[in-house]
Amino acid sequence: MPVSSKSSNAWLRKALSVIAAGAAVLSLTACGGMKTADQVAGNTDASSANGTCPTDVNNDFTGIVRVGWQAIPNADLVVKDQKLLESCLPKATIKWSQFNSGADVLQAFGAKSLDIALLGSSPSVKAVSGPLNLPVQVVWINDVIGEAESLVTQAQGVSSIKDLKGKTIAVPFGSTSHFSLLSALSEAGLTESDVKLVNLDPDKMPAAWERKEIDAAWVWDPVLSQLKEKGGTTVTSSAETAKTGAPTYDLELADSTFIKDNPAVLDTWTAVENHAVQQVKKADDKAVDSIAVQLNVKPDQVRQQLKGYTYLDAAEQAKAFDDLPGVFSKTAEFLKSQGGLDTVASSYDSALYTDAIQKASK
Predict the structure, then answer these.
(1) What architecture is domain 10-145+248-360?
(2) Three-state SS for 319?
(3) 217-233 pLDDT, tens digit each
(4) Dihedral of the CA atoms 36, 39, 43, 48 (nearest 10)?
(5) Which CATH code is given to the segment(s) 147-243?
(6) What is the model's pLDDT at position 38?
(7) Can you supply a Gene Ontology BP term from the record (predicted)?
(8) Considering the entire predicted model, what is its pTM?
(9) Torsions phi, psi of 149, nearest 5?
(10) Residue 184: which H helix or E strand, with range?
């Protein structure tokens, strides 16, 4: 089917209408049947057992935790693959559901279908700004995005983003890549009307690329690597837009009511993520294998992908959280100037929940 072009404002209107109506999540996919790294390696003893809990086991919580994840190489995938939450919350039911982008996660939070999930910093800002004003808070920094999100092209004669004027560029609307693309266009003196923007989920990009329906795409791994393998060349990256004042992150947001009702679960969740990110920072073999299985790629590819991000442990995040309100304000101002927000909050301090990180950092 030919790819159709839509404006970012049209996407926002559509997303808002879905949330306002309390519609069911459209892109939610349960992934409970995926094999773990242990199972792939032939460790049959791991087929039904949970991992070893790296922190105090929480036997008090007996409810459900609905976790949203994305195919991004970070500690979330280690926690999921090694069943660390299941081992530390043995009486709880952990429901993992995959999303293609932050736009889908926004709809799920709006429909009250999630308790905690990964979102890029751009959709996170949209979540806590008008008109959405969703009752969610940032509880963790999954990673600082660098060259792992890049703009690649298959068009000839393109050496800078200015050369893409009039070309078709695919990007998941509402994502950090979308924000970085708009920032890069603005920095180059262009607007989104100077190019043809196409709202496309990452998993749909390779086919559109092969059919020559798109000239370029701003996306993350593993799709980024796939497009490079198909002849794509890098034009710029999120590392470059960060240098011009538009840094991006992958963040974990949690429903505010869930946080208030279950602070001990957040303590457990944060301790588990902190354990996993230590593995990721060292590119530990077990962590790499876990991420490789969850992304369905080879371990060597994971090691290469990890170089495109910066990972922070709890102690580093305790300091980094001090900068987030300012980052959110700058991001919100830019998004408002692009028509992506109605209002910018006077302060984003209340959008952060730091209690669990402070405990995990000690």
Answers:
(1) 3-Layer(aba) Sandwich (3.40)
(2) helix
(3) 999 988 999 999 999 99
(4) 80
(5) 3.40.190.10
(6) 53
(7) alkanesulfonate transmembrane transport
(8) 0.81
(9) -115, 115
(10) helix 176-187
